[in-house]
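Continuing from yesterday's entry. The apo prediction looked reasonable, so today I'm repeating it with adenosine-5'-triphosphate included to see how the binding region is handled. Same sequence as before; SMILES copied from the compound registry.
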Amino acid sequence: MAPPPPVPAPSPTPDPGRGGVRVQLSGLRRTFPGGLTVLDGMDLDVAAGSFVALVGPSGCGKSTLLRVVAGLDRPDAGTLTFSPPLDHTPGARTPIAYVFQDAHLLPWRSVLDNVALPLELAGVPTPERHASAQALLKEVGLGDATSRYPAQLSGGMRMRVSLARALVTRPRLLLLDEPFAALDELTRNRLDDQLLALWKELGMTVLFVTHSLSEAAYLAERVLVLSRRPARVMLDRHLVLPPERLPALRADPGFAREMGLLLQALEQGEAA
Ligand SMILES: Nc1ncnc2c1ncn2[C@@H]1O[C@H](COP(=O)(O)OP(=O)(O)OP(=O)(O)O)[C@@H](O)[C@H]1O
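Holo prediction written out below.
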């Protein structure tokens, strides 16, 4: 008798906590009351799970762009599409998280309870939300600081709490608006590395606004250099750099070449 056919190995179950969303903007326009047009015909296609940095002159509309993508502001024209569509049903994975330059922590809540807040608002029971918050805090190097209060933390620690709070719900899209700009360079570099590690682990799409070209080149796979207002894309650069970003990269000639290209486009965008 012929032996029974081999049982096929089960295909790996996709991790529901991983993965990003594709973001497409088409013809986006935002004019503020009084007639100031900040975005005018902005087109952009951001691949799911990619890490994209946005740089551009002060006031060109980077924060406006993030706010529109986050749904905190409405465009006057154009379309914004997410694929797969965002799921806003209660209990579903939170689609979008936003990290600002200011950590915006609640001073009367402990570090653990600050990070657990989005889960509390989603109705997650205390033991589960504390376990998730504790795990994230450990990943950002604050596993020992869970019972402290925001006033007892340094600026870098506060930003790590803010980052942990943004990621505790495993968002599909993470928007960061100059999150580490107020920190000293070494702390910023360390936080950049932690952000990269979390991105690799969770696979969400990241849109990162920064004024630092070196931070943009170190973190991102793709950098968009915007012109002054109304923002146009001066350069859409898929960086030719190794996917593994290690501190030694900052001294690499390839890194300097990318920085040069970004700087040139930024200067052209300022003058445009
Ligand atoms: N709600 C608003 N009402 C009116 N004008 C606004 C509003 N929000 C932003 N602006 C103006 O729109 C322009 C773009 O602002 P935005 O914050 O998007 O720029 P940005 O590129 O993020 O700037 P920066 O790099 O300095 O943070 C600025 O001139 C700003 O003053």
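Comparison notes:
- The two ends are 79 Å apart (CA to CA).
- The first helix runs from residue 62 to 70.
Will overlay with the apo model tomorrow.
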